[in-house]
Design goal:
With about 450 residues, the chain is an alpha+beta fold. The protein has helices at about 45-65, 100-115, 160-170, 180-190, 195-200, 230-240, 245-255, 285-310, 330-340, 360-370, 370-380, 410-420, 430-450; strands at about 5-10, 15-25, 25-35, 40, 40-45, 70-75, 80-90, 95, 120-130, 135, 145, 145-160, 175-180, 200-205, 210-215, 220-225, 270, 280-285, 320, 340-345, 395, 405. Belongs to the FtsA/MreB family.
Length: about 450
């Protein structure tokens, strides 16, 4: 991308492709386009999926006046598999400062140890680093160590499915920088810190697949997938009312309720049924009963899996999102059916106040907030930044996005990778202006690592 502060999140769904563009974390454009190349969350036609991706990205590029070359794509929970991974690397017999390369070698060791045939790493989430086998730290860099260990969670996806996604993005004319697990992306925007820490369930009601994911301590603890979604509801309406799927989808959005108790028999609308003479009048209650029957089946199946794993007692309750959550009454239907508190989440940014954009918005938000160690993880998995040369300096800086201390050597690393040096600051500027400029340049360097 021409401006390395821009992030493009891509959510490739069964019925539609969503693209969200953010500039320094602020959303500046969002687009959704139909997708006919997938079925129940899996690509069945790479070319058709590529067409949908291309349309979405071209539309959002025009909308935001941005030049888009690369994206960050989400990987749905149905493809993910979690493995505990532990790695180890020697730093120096006499003890020396832990470098970026030491951290990468340790992470590489963990990924290699947990890797399985026919699956590829998506990301690695370090839970702790261990200095000399005894001192636990969040970020070991610049600390003195003889050896370095790491323990965390490795998330992988099937090689074949991942290949199809990569190929579809490539055929659309774009490059995928790295993948983000969709449930973690959604949790980054739909859950607050307490909900992520103490436990919540995210129910994502998509077009072709519905999922329930337990997030606790900031990580995925359990997931349940149901291979039915909003498109199945549309098919039910089409079959029962003998109307086209296009008309069925429209009246579902215009007149449908998830819970029939919110509908009225007095409110009616006209349909043109196949084989009938003239229009027929249908009341909202009848339509909502068709919708409700399928929704209750989906929620019951998801609920059984959650109950089996004692996941319905999470303090954060259930947060519902995805396109099908637009149906009024879905929160009360879920709460009553599963006997748990439930609420609906949708982004509140202008031009994107629709739960269909939650995953794509989450992808850019999650990517924007990644720490420096997360970058090192991705550099191991996706192979970028291999020619970075570290330069020792003394004065530390603070990155806007990092909870950890970022040293000048890391800022120099960013510059070396991009082959672009920050412009010199005016000697007459105040200390405050210098500090602000350092933060801005540090942020730009961070994103250039991913996108240049």
């Amino acid at each position: 991308m021409e401006d390395s502060n821009l992030l493009v999140g891509l959510d490739i769904g069964t019925t539609s492709v969503k693209a969200v563009v953010a500039d320094s974390g602020k959303v500046i454009g969002a687009v959704t386009t139909p997708n006919s190349g997938m079925r129940h969350g899996q690509i069945v036609d790479i070319d058709q999926t590529a067409v949908a991706i291309s349309r979405a990205l071209k539309a959002v590029a025009e909308k935001t006046n941005a030049k888009i070359y690369s994206v960050v794509a989400g990987i749905p929970v149905g493809m993910l598999q979690l493995e505990t991974a532990t790695g180890f690397a020697n730093v120096g017999e006499e003890g020396q400062e832990v470098s970026n390369e030491d951290v990468k070698r340790t992470i590489r060791s963990a990924i290699h140890a947990a890797a399985k045939d026919d699956r590829e790493a998506i990301t690695f989430l370090p839970s702790r680093f261990l200095i000399d086998g005894k001192t636990e730290v969040d970020d070991p860099r610049k600390m003195i160590a003889r050896s370095l260990g790491v323990t965390g969670i490795l998330l992988t996806a099937p090689t074949g499915s991942l290949h199809n996604i990569k190929k579809a993005i490539e055929r659309a004319g774009y490059h995928n920088n790295f993948f983000v697990p969709t449930p973690l992306a959604i949790s980054s925007v739909a859950l607050n810190e307490s909900e992520k820490t103490f436990g919540s369930v995210i129910i994502d009601l998509g077009g072709g697949v519905s999922t329930a994911t337990v997030i606790k301590e900031g990580q995925i603890k359990y997931a349940n997938i149901d291979l039915e979604g909003g498109s199945d509801i549309t098919n039910d309406i089409s079959a029962v009312l003998s109307i086209s799927k296009r008309d069925a989808e429209q009246i579902k959005l215009d007149y449908g309720f998830a819970d029939p108790q919110f509908a009225s028999k007095n409110d009616k609308f006209a349909i043109n049924s196949v084989g009938s003479n003239g229009q027929q009048m249908i009341d909202e209650v009848y339509l909502s009963e068709i919708i409700n029957a399928r929704l209750e089946q989906i929620l019951t199946r998801l609920g059984k899996g959650l109950a089996k794993h004692n996941a319905l007692k999470q303090p954060g309750g259930i947060v519902i999102t995805g396109g099908t959550s637009l149906l009024q009454g879905i929160d009360s239907l879920t709460a009553n059916g599963l006997n748990v508190k439930a609420r609906i989440y949708q982004p509140d940014q202008i031009g994107m106040r629709n739960p269909i954009y939650t995953a794509a918005y989450g992808i850019v938000n999650y990517s924007y907030k990644m720490l420096e160690v997360d970058y090192l993880v991705n550099s191991v998995i996706y192979g970028f930044g291999q020619n970075v040369v570290e330069e020792p300096v003394s004065k530390p800086k603070t990155s806007k996005n990092s909870k950890r201390t970022v040293s000048n050597s890391e800022s120099e690393t960013k510059e070396a990778y991009n082959r672009n040096k920050m412009s010199a600051r005016d000697d007459s500027s105040t200390d405050e202006e210098n500090n602000n400029q350092e933060k801005t340049n540090g942020l730009k360097g961070f994103f250039k690592k991913f996108f240049d």
